Amino acid sequence: MRLIDSHTHIFAEEFDYDRSEAIQRAKDAGVVAMVMPNINSQSVDSLLSVAQQYPDYCFPCMGVHPTSVKNNFDDELASVQSWFAKAKFYAVGEIGIDLYWDKTFVEQQKEVFRQQLKMAKKFRLPVIIHARNSFHEIFKIVDQENDEDLGGVFHSFSGSLTDYEHIASYGKFLVGIGGVVTYKNGGVDKVVQHINLANVILETDSPYLSPVPQRGKRNESANLVYIASRIAEIKGISVQEVASVTTANATKLFSLSNL
Ligand SMILES: [Zn+2]
């Protein structure tokens, strides 16, 4: 079985004491690649050092996360822009709008999100979108920016079937399914039933959102098997089929070669 973790923050300090062991456990569990979305200008050093240490396994992305958008958002955007000129990245991410934690900078979040969508189109890279309590605001912007050059993933998808249909209608957008699909009251399981596997990639969002039976502990990429198994159970197909289809989807979306 070959799996791809399309969203992990393995470069985060939560892994500083056992990163190589966590990567080995992921390899042992069949994970053949990790996609690493950036957080902000402060996380770039560790992001790139992990990418350098694990070439052809840990693939870095560049962007500023919505919860890092404050008054200095211009500096953060300039940092993102400058990094694209200096290194290879596989996506613009993670970007988006988060109105769960703090609504103070909602206008700035919208602007930074739009600017990064434009960068993705310019560089012909996919985007990794973080949407929390913000589908309305995000859809409004993507409706305006979407064109044949734009594609990507709505990561840690936990929306309704209507939200999913809106995403699928864009043409080149997928949904990232993570640990929430294993939660009893998550609601994602009922939506996943109706989602076409051709539009799905798998993710852990580690160190966050551990799936059952690891819920409450630090998450890591080896736990991807629990997510794949739950999706297989919901859809009544084999876990091998979930693995092969979602791995092909992620390979294509992020243009990963040499896996
Ligand atoms: Zn994330």
Name some characteristics of this structure.
single chain; 259 residues; alpha/beta; TIM Barrel; 5-stranded parallel sheet; 3-stranded parallel sheet; 9 helices; 40% helix; 14% strand; binds zinc ion
Low-confidence stretches: none
CATH superfamily (homologous) name: Metal-dependent hydrolases
**Percent range of helical residues:** 40-55%
In whole angstroms, how far apart are the ends? 13 Å
Structural class of the helices, strands and pairings?
alpha/beta
Largest sheet: 5 strands, parallel
Ligand roster? zinc ion
CATH topology: TIM Barrel
| DSSP, total strands | 8
Number of domains: 1
Order of helices and strands: EHEHEHEHEHEHEHEHH
What does the overall shape look like?
globular
Mean pLDDT: 97
Residue fraction in strands: 5-15%
Helical segment count: 9
**CATH class descriptor:** Alpha Beta
What Rg is obtained from the alpha carbons, in whole angstroms? 17 Å
Could you say what the CATH architecture is?
Answer: Alpha-Beta Barrel
Q: How do the strands line up in the largest sheet?
A: 4-5-6-7-8
Summarize the structure in words.
This protein has 259 residues and is α/β, with parallel strands linked by helices. It has one domain (3-253): TIM Barrel. The chain contains 9 helices and 8 strands. The model has no long low-confidence stretch (mean pLDDT 97). Residues 7, 9, 37, 94, 205 line the site of zinc ion (ZN). Zinc ion binds next to loops.
